[in-house]
Design brief:
Blueprint lengths: L1 H18 L30 E10 L5 H11 L2 E4 L10 E5 L5 H10 L3 E8 L16 H5 L5
Antiparallel strand pairs: 1-3, 1-4, 2-3
Length: 148
């Protein structure tokens, strides 16, 4: 009798657990398109929110610091490392330029053989908030020395 009761209770619990849908609360953001329906919806293409006067320049991985400086001098731009604390960051630099010259410089830099890619610095946006109740308690950051 006890086995039968245990079987019925566990079967009911399993059925209820399988029938409950996962739940994530939709958080309204003023900058999202009206058609946005959560993280599963596709959002393609740039949003148009860029940092004026900044270009992300992905340089070839085997380029030297001297060649980077030659490129900056040649294009009359100032290049700074995107991740100064990381030595092997894939040679991604940020060019500080006149905002009116961004499109022309992106086109010219994209044609240079020392450059893998160049694009205006886009502002990254979060499109949803995780429904993790511990999301606001980032205990893991201190474990990897990433409190900043």
């Amino acid at each position: 009798m006890k086995k039968r009761a245990l079987l019925v209770v566990s079967s009911c619990a399993l059925t209820l657990a399988a029938a409950m849908p996962a739940h994530a609360e939709k958080v309204p953001f003023p900058y999202l398109p009206d058609a946005y329906d959560g993280p599963s919806a596709a959002v393609s293409g740039p949003t148009g929110d860029f940092i004026p006067g900044e270009i992300v320049v992905d340089l070839k991985d085997d380029i030297s610091d001297e060649q980077i400086q030659e490129l900056a001098d040649e294009f009359h731009i100032s290049l700074r490392d995107n991740s100064p604390d990381i030595k092997d960051d894939g040679k991604i630099d940020v060019a500080d330029v006149d905002p009116s010259q961004v499109d022309a410089l992106v086109a010219r830099l994209s044609q240079d053989p020392r450059v893998e890619a160049a694009e205006p610095m886009e502002i990254a946006r979060a499109y949803f908030t995780p429904n993790d109740p511990k999301f606001t308690e980032p205990w893991h950051r201190s474990r990897v020395n990433a409190e900043r």
